[in-house]
Structures are given as C-alpha cells and as structure tokens.
Amino acid sequence: MPATVHNEEPAENNRGDRIFFAAFMTGIAAISFGLGAFIVLAEVPPYQSMKNAFRAGTALWEQRTKYTDVERLDFWAPARTEKTGVTIHDANKTQQGLTLYSSGDGPHAVLIDMDGNVVHEWRMPFSEIHDETSPIPNPQKDGFMHWHTAKMAPDGDLIVQYTAAGDTPYGYGMAKIDRNSKPVWKYLGTAHHDFSIAPDGRVYALTQEFRFNKYANRKQLTPPRLDDFAVILSPEGKEIKRVSILDAMINSSYANMVDFAPYFSNEDVLHTNTIQLITEETAANFAHGKAGDVVLSFRDLGIIAVLDMDVEKIVWATRGPWLGQHDPDVLPNGDILLFDNQGQLADPDAGQSRVLQIDPKTNAITWQYKGTIEHKFDSNIRADQQRLANGNTLITESTGGRLLEVTPDGEIVWEYLNPVRRDDPDNSGKKLIPILSQSERISDDRAALFTDTGFTPPSNDGEPR
Description:
Elements: H1 11-42, H2 47-66, E1 76-78, E2 85-89, E3 99-103, E4 108-112, E5 118-123, E6 145-152, E7 158-164, E8 171-177, E9 183-187, E10 191-197, E11 203-211, E12 225-233, E13 239-244, H3 245-250, E14 272-277, H4 280-283, E15 294-298, E16 303-308, E17 313-319, E18 326-330, E19 336-340, E20 354-359, E21 364-370, E22 384-387, E23 393-397, E24 402-406, E25 412-417, E26 422-423, E27 431-434, E28 436-441, H5 444-447
Antiparallel strand pairs: 1-27, 2-25, 3-4, 3-28, 4-5, 6-7, 7-8, 8-9, 10-11, 11-12, 12-13, 14-15, 15-16, 16-17, 18-19, 19-20, 20-21, 22-23, 23-24, 24-25, 26-27
C-alpha cells in the first residue's frame, strides 16, 4: 500500500500567519486612521465630502429617531395651568377687536373675538400645495408642520408660512389662501420665520439655503452653511428680487460684528428671524433707514439691522441689552419695540423674557414689560408683540401658549390661553400646550369681513363640530 502524504503545515506556522495577518490589518487600520485624521485636521480633499456625508448621516439619523412623536416636537411645551381661553378681560381698558393667531398643533390659524369665541379658522396642509418645483423633495408629514406666521392681507385673505420640525431647511414656503382655505397663490421657495406685507400688496420674506462659498477674511464661516436671503414677492406671489443677507453684512462697515458669533452658530451664523418693511410712516422719525428698507433680527448674534434692498447692503446694525430677541418693530415715533426672549436675568422666578421699547439712537430702554411671580413671562424662543392704537401692547408668549394685552403701566387687561391640550408622553398625568408663534389684532375694516353668521368652526382635529 502506498504511503499517505500529509500536506498540513505545522501549527506554529498557522499561528504565525494569523499573527502576521492581524498585524497587517492593524497597520492598515492605523494608516487609515492617520490618513483620515490628517485629512480632517489639515482640511484637505476629500475633507469636505467626508464632513458633508457625516453631517447628512447624522441629520438623517436624528430625523428618524428623534422626530417620531408630534408631542415631542418643540411646537409643544408643558402647560402651566389648566385654564383655557380668555381668563382676563377688562373691556374698559382693552383695544376691542378680533385677534388672529397661529398654533403649533398644525398648519392652521384662528380668528377669535375678545371673549375667545372662534370667529373663523383656516386650515391647509402643506401636502395640498407641494409639487415637484419645491426644493424640498420629501417633506415631513403634515402633522410635523405648523404656520409659524399667519398675517391677514388687506383683502381679508391670509398669507401663511410653513415651518417643519426635524428638517433642514425647515422653512418650506408660503401661500396666500382665501377665507375658505383655498390657495390663491403659493411660493415654494424655502421661506421661513417671518414676512411683511407692503401697502401695495408685495411681500417681503426670508428664505434659506445651503451655500458652499467661502469668505477670504472670515475663515470661520466654513461651508456648507445655512444662509438667509431677503426676497420680495409680487402681489401674485412671484419672486421679483433676492438678496443674500450674509453677503450684505460682510460687504458693509458692520462686517466685524459677524466675528462675535457664538461657537454653535457658524453653520447658521445669522439665523434671521424677523423681516419688517420700513414704510413711509415709520421712516419719518427713524434715522437709520428709509422707506423700502427692511429691519432684520439676527438671533444668535443679538443684532438688529437695517438692509437697504436697493444697494443690497446693511446700512445700520446695533446690539443692546437683549438676548435671543425676536420681532423688532419700528414705531411711528422712531423707537423700536422688540421681544427680548432671554434678557430678563434679575428675577428668574418671574421668567426670563420681557418686551422692550428702545431708543435706537442710544439703545436706552424707554418702556418695558416683564413678568411677576404671579404672572410668569417666559418664552425662550419665538414670540412677538404688536403696539395697538390705544397705546396697549398685544404680546405673544409663545412657549406659554398665551396671548396677553398690557397697558403702558404693565397691567394685564386681556389674557388668552390656547385651549388645545394633549397628554405629555414623558410625564404621566401632565398636559402639553401648543405654542402660539405669533398674533395680531386686526383692523376694524378687515374685521368687518368676518362678522357674518353661519360659520361652523372646525374642532381641534380639523373636522366640523
């Protein structure tokens, strides 16, 4: 019988091969790590592609994991009280009229009388106007959006802006809708936060987009960034002018103010949250801008600025005793009224927010409203205010889901709490209230358009009662 030949290698050779292979793979991993570290630290190609891919993956993961329950969105906050509707009403001291507000529980707006009765309501989900022209190819579900801003046009139609949670850009666009919640026009540019309606029907709005440009003297503004633009829409909703706000700032004498952006905002350096048109009336006593310019608010920089839309340049900017501000309004006397979200630091039990009226020549505070222990006033983001014809101020305390009208002496003469409530999924037995992002007391001529009878307001889920 022929001898059997064995080809097996000695055990020590196998162990040696495995050790060699492990060392080889460890070396490859070390080289890859070192190369990756060099690419990141030196910011050489393909650094930007790696950075973009990582950020995109992180954003997608957060969207899929953090934004699954509507009640966990920041459109909702813990309810401070069980009270709903109108809780204070001194008819002898209020500016009588109808009040329009938008709510965080969906894309809708409500018009109420002084007793809190619903006079009219508008609802139109974004899915009804979205099409292939939108830069948002896969928008969030309708339940994850609300109208951040809803304002009534002179003809009684409503102009609204859609904001989504868990997406960037989060501004989805605008629409004008009639009293039956049917679209008159739509603008699917990435409009966000705020807009202003001119007397001639044009609309001044904010849009946002990712940009990849660099600035020679501002290396900290690394791409991609979410940059803001000021746009002008025709009365029919067509874009007729568009200005880069960051370019307008960098190309102005106020460019150095950008260098004081906090560390967390370089990828959204301005975070413009307000645009207000300066009219002939408000320009008369305002030394820092002319009719046709717009007032802007840069939240994280704490800046109020004026943009000349003709020369596309910031022509005035200031910082003052406010933090995270919203809604600077130029008053007819030339002062600026604004919501100071986080600047009330002296008495935390009264809330961190206040409304300030300032003299822009000196930044001196000429009037203010702040909360008390009995009437806490606290909205860390969003919120706005409106100076009324009788001298009172209508205030939207967004996080509290509350509207209030105060006299020049600071007396609350009208208060309204969002009547919508939902269970807090993270705190058994507790309730959540949807934010009220903005409000306005509408003029008598527009209010007259809604004094008809026969309107049946929808319930909270949009179905007729």
